[in-house]
Amino acid sequence: xxxxxxxxxxxxxxxxxxxxxxxxxxxxxxxxxxxxxxxxxxxxxxxxxxxxxxxxxxxxxxxxxxxxxxxxxxxxxxxxxxxxxxxxxxxxxxxxxxxxxxxxxxxxxxxxxxxxxxxxxxxxxxxxxxxxxxxxxxxxxxxxxxxxxxxxxxxxxxxxxxxxxxxxxxxxxxxxxxxxxxxxxxxxxxxxxxxxxxxxxxxxxxxxxxxxxxxxxxxxxxxxxxxxxxxxxxxxxxxxxxxxxxxxxxxxxxxxxxxxxxxxxxxxxxxxxxxxxxxxxxxxxxxxxxxxxxxxxxxxxxxxxxxxxxxxxxxxxxxxxxxxxxxxxxxxxxxxxxxxxxxxxxxxxxxxxxxxxxxxxxxxxxxxxxxxxxxxxxxxxxxxxxxxxxxxxxxxxxxxxxxxxxxxxxxxxxxxxxxxxxxxxxxxxxxxxxxxxxxxxxxxxxxxxxxxxxxxxxxxxxxxxxxxxxxxxxxxxxxx
Length: 480
Prior knowledge:
6-stranded mixed sheet; two-stranded antiparallel ribbon
């Protein structure tokens, strides 16, 4: 039975802000804040030092560009474009303040160590302008982000949602809403009358499909999420079409879950299994693959240089810490199931798998040495894999290369597990920066969800984001 089109017309639903729109707003006003801070500082400098505005920009464009780009990179690697973080005013302000401190330290080292001394005739205000810009940018960004969190954050313009389906899939989605401030689950809708009134994940089952009109009107619902695995019948399809006509978004659970969590819920997609796999061919696939290989070679050479610099120190530390080889090599499975040998700095005691059986590393693993713990946190243990990247066996970004024994075991328990072999394994990846190491089948499932998301949404921009996030993990020593 469809909605009565003539007698109970729904008022037009005002759509909530899309995630992309919010992120674009954050980015544009960040640029405006950074630009205002720099321009204001240069104006003050030039007015006090009797110089022209044009001269300042022409002769000192380097620090202006570096500071502008540097601040945007800092905002990105500190997750300040993650909407879940953007609504937390205190946390955001702390990260911006830390960015100002880091910028000030870099500025001090560069200008007060390498710049000419005051005796050379260089005005103090020339050195003062970048410092003033750092402070101004920090203040402006903090004010803007606090304003965003106050007026566009939690409690403001939430996506008010009905979840159609009170089963396991619906409960998983309701749990995901708890980690996202922009979605509010008004309630479940389910045609099973025995479920009406029950509560799952603190969300009540409000009624069946014929109660949706009342719930949408009473709560101003602007999205209905389909968390069901069975096909939609004609009656429900017509009802959903009528809601959509009046501005209510209709979204399949797998699509929304991807958007919210950055991973694919492979165990809950039901008849929509096709949504987990990257079937669609990219028209720029050849160009992108060439670009990805060029990025691998450029980054590989840079990391190779870093490896050459740190090698003597890491090798000596490993040798002094525990007996055994400096390098650790192991056979892993690469793209399309091809086997190759991966190289790493040894982070465990010698002969860590004495019984010959493959074992996952676990948190607090007694086999990890003191030096091994440090090089794991800083990801230094991964550096020798740059040899695999340069040889074309691995990429800079991709799913983590796994051992044959684990793949044989996990593909029997986890759907689509071998799909991750469609791409070259990576030195870093979407799963690595979002979840880190895993030691259980459940961990492997979660990492697969991230890997499938990466395969489905791969682009040069996504690789670039992952590399920046990896750099942040290294700096913060958040590796595992």
